[in-house]
Amino acid sequence: MIKGEEKIAFRDNIFKLMAFVSLAIAVLVCRLIWLQVIDKTTLDTKNLDQVETSRKLQSPRGTIYDRNGNPLAMSMVTRSLYADPKMIKKSPDEIASLIAPYTRIKEDEIVKRLKEDTAFIWLDRMMDPDKSKALAQVMKENELEGLNFVEESRRFYPNGNLLAQVLGFVGTDDKGLDGLEMAKDDIIRGGITKELVATDQHGNAIFGSVLSKFLPEKERSITLTIDTTVQFIAERALDKVMAESKPNGASIIIMDPKTGEILAMANRPTYDPNHYEKGSENSFKNRAVIDMYEPGSTFKPLTASAALASGKWSVDTVYNDMGSINISGHTIQNWNGEGYGNVKLLEILKYSINTGMAQLGVTTGKSIMMDYLKAYGFGKKTGIELPGEAEGQLIPEEDISQLDLATMAFGQSVAVTPLQMVQAFGAIANGGKMMMPHIIKSINNPDGSPVETEEIKEVGQPIPEDVAKTILGMLEKEVSEGGGNKAAVDGYHFAGKTGTAQKLDAEHGGYLDGRYIASFVGVGPVEDPRFVALVVIDDPNGVYYGGQIAAPVFKDIMSQLVRYFQLSPSVTKEKDLQGQEATHRPSKPAVSKSDDGTIILPDFTGWTTGEVRDWLHEAGLQFIPDGTGYAISQDEPGGAEVSIGDAVTVYFKR
Q: Is the confidence at residue 526, as pLDDT, over 60?
């Protein structure tokens, strides 16, 4: 009987166990159904969170090109060094001593980072290719575990410091920090590249286990109005000025007056945006659009045009210059203290007579004068696509005294930017029509198709066409016969005005004793103006007159541009008009070749077409004649070195 009860009890226990197991299985099945079907999304998310993490990297920025398609700013693939401190086998001190010679961070900082309680740290971002290559070899030879590279995009400026202040630079986080890189950051900035990296149960990265990448779309590019060759010519001229006159700084702007396109914008001092960390606030500054200065005599043609256009003065108005003039109890003198007697507007501009300009300003009146100056764009930004542009300063009309009016007429009591001066003189060069300066030609899709093309904008006509031509003709006399003669370009008619102004004391007011801003603004060729250019030299040492140090810079630049743009000469030297072959033809030098194959060109002036052809062919050079008769100029000057096979253009006239 007892045995029967034991069997029954055993059987009941078996049934209970089976019921419990069945219930457990049922619960597990329901749980699996819940997790796998009903709550699948939540589970997947939690699972990924436990086994994956992401690293965000910047993709390449859009390229910036010049007007001819040459890259000015581009992105290149570089390698960035990172480490997993949890996986390093050697001591942080040993690793740091091995890799520090190749990184931009110091050895003690490397040690500090390698001791951090993390699975990922950056050691050096966007390394120079030669450094990363050498370091990779060191890592291999020393079996440095826990260190690796990842590819990142780095901004590269192939021309070094060329156009530096216009382009600006980019930080390591791909954020534009200055210039166009900052102003157009939203257009050309790279997107985010996200890498998914496998991790262990504690969230530590499984080293080098990139599972997949999510890449952004390519970015848009920008094409500028800048011509790299013109920019190079301008910057080389500035380097020469800085070396010879040792000023605080200098700027050059070259613009097409018919379109407002900026062909060159150069500043000194400068820096290399590839290594912007070595630059300074002074070198970062785009003086051409930020600096304000009193223009001095370069302002005179603008106020003279206002007087002519308003009818308050005429080209035949005679002014008796006594060397000084009294305005509201203040004496104004000419720059040299001399009087020129009875003079007309041509002589007032040609000889830069301050007294005559003072009288012209007072005669014109402040209301009319201010209307014209505002029409020229002074006192407000031009609207160019660059950051930090200054507005300049005009005295409020109600506050202008007779003395202010007199001094404004010859370029004092008014502050302008170099860009404003170029815009205003563009109107004189363009028949009175003033174009808006711009430096962006187009914004393009990744495939090169334009998204937006910058329209040529006329922003007013401050003076009539006949007045513009009259002033332009007077400025041509300034260059050919007056104080701007050092700006004259052989074979061409150019117009311009020199300026020498005392430097403003921004801290205390008034002027700085013995410190000046020398400048020259020019236009040409006069028959069909292609360029308006301004040279500004801030506080030069030694000679400081604009006609002495700024005008020659203009000549140097324009002498090269007329050749670069293949502009036919319009002026023939006197000796080329004599009509006698013996007068034209100098003795021909023999062809001389150096060991490296270069050939020194002679000055072909006065040679016949046949003589030039024979000499060039003997030298192994190509001959491109322009015109017939006797040589009057050439694209490469006498003394220039060329290589065998090069083409040489020579201009002829009967």
A: yes
Taking the C-alpha atoms of residue 480 and residue 350, their distance in angstroms, rounded to an integer, is: 10
Look up tokens 């997107």; give the residue.
191
Look up the CATH number of domain 54-223.
Answer: 3.90.1310.10
Phi, psi (rounded to 5 degrees) for 208? 70, 20
Paired with 653 in beta bridges are 630
pLDDT tens-place string over residues 275-308:
999 999 999 999 999 999 999 999 999 999 999 9
DSSP 4-39: HHHHHHHHHHHHHHHHHHHHHHHHHHHHHHIIIIIS
Structure tokens at 368: 């009319």
Bridge partners (DSSP) of residue 81 are 124, 149
- Residue pair 210/195 in contact by the 8 Å Cβ criterion: yes
Task: Name the strand (E) or helix (H) holding 89.
Answer: none
pTM: predicted TM-score of the whole model, two decimal places: 0.74
| Distance from the first to the final alpha carbon of the chain | 147
Rounded distance, CA 208 to CA 417, Å? 54
d(CA 99, CA 86): 18
State pLDDT tens for residues 303-342.
999 999 999 999 999 999 999 999 999 999 987 788 989 9
Cα–Cα distance measured from residue 307 to residue 131, given in angstroms and rounded to the nearest whole number: 65
Please check the confidence at residue 220 and state whether its pLDDT lies above 90. Answer: no
What pLDDT digit, counting tens, does each position of 48-94 carry? 444 444 555 556 788 999 999 999 998 877 788 888 888 888 888 88
Cα–Cα dist 506/407, whole Å = 19
196 phi-psi bin (left φ>0, alpha ψ -120 to 50, beta other): beta
Q: State the sign of the Cα–Cα–Cα–Cα dihedral 197, 201, 203, 206.
A: negative
* Residue-by-residue DSSP string for 277-292: GG--HHHH--HHHH--
* Three-class SS state of 306: helix
Among residues 430, 432, 437, the alpha carbon closest in space to that of 262 is found at 437
pLDDT tens, residue by residue, 132-147? 889 889 888 888 888 8
Band of the pLDDT at 191, cuts 50, 70, 90? Answer: low
CATH 3.40.1580.10 correct for 234-564 = no
Query: What's the pLDDT score for residue 324?
Result: 92
Domain residue ranges of the chain, discontinuous segments joined by +: 54-223, 234-564, 574-653
Helix (H) or strand (E) holding 153: strand 147-156
**Burial letters for 169-194: b for 16+ Cβ neighbours within 10 Å, e otherwise?**
bbeeebebebbbbbbbbebbbbbebe
C-alpha to C-alpha distance for 12 and 21, rounded to whole angstroms: 14
What does the pLDDT read at residue 57?
A: 55
Contact 344, 319 (CB under 8 A): yes
| CA torsion angle 455 456 460 464 (round to 10) | -150
What pLDDT score does 86 carry?
81
Beta bridge partners of 325: 332
Q: What is the pLDDT of residues 605-642, one digit of tens each?
A: 888 777 887 788 788 777 777 766 688 888 888 878 88
What token pair was written down for 311? Answer: 């009818």
| Strand 622-626 to 647-653 pairing | parallel
How many CB atoms lie under 10 A from the CB of residue 428?
Answer: 29
DSSP states along 38-51:
ISHHHHHHHHHHHH
134: which residues sit within 8 A by CB, 6+ positions away? 102
- Please state, in angstroms and rounded to a whole number, the distance separating the CA atoms of residues 177 and 184: 10
What tokens were used for 458? 């006329």
Cα 408-413-419 angle, rounded to 5 deg: 85
Query: What is the fold, at CATH topology level, of the domain defined by 574-653?
Result: Trypsin Inhibitor V; Chain A (3.30.10)
